[in-house]
Amino acid sequence: MTEKQTNPNEEIKVEGIRRCLRKSDLENILGVKRTTRQRITRLPGFSKSFKLGGTCEVWDSEEVYQWLETQKAEHGGN
Length: 78
Hints:
- By secondary structure, the protein is an alpha+beta fold.
- It has helices spanning 23-30, 34-41, 61-74, and strands spanning 3-5, 12-14, 20-21, 50-52, 56-60.
- The chain has a 3-stranded antiparallel β-sheet with strand order 3-5-4. The protein has a two-stranded antiparallel ribbon with strand order 1-2.
- It starts with a strand and ends with a helix.
- The model is unreliable at 1-6 (pLDDT under 50).
């Protein structure tokens, strides 16, 4: 397996492995605080959360990174 840098927060994503991101992980990846994270997660097209164990809300890392790449392409990012 190969590792690659995927964002400025030095998050390491190992190809082929999907992670479940908790709220704090999502905030770190997006570089935002709670209120902005809540607003972003309500946007159409953003990854839908799901529950682990009934109470732990998580997001699929692949879907989140895909959304970020889409935003980057649509808004002229590098």
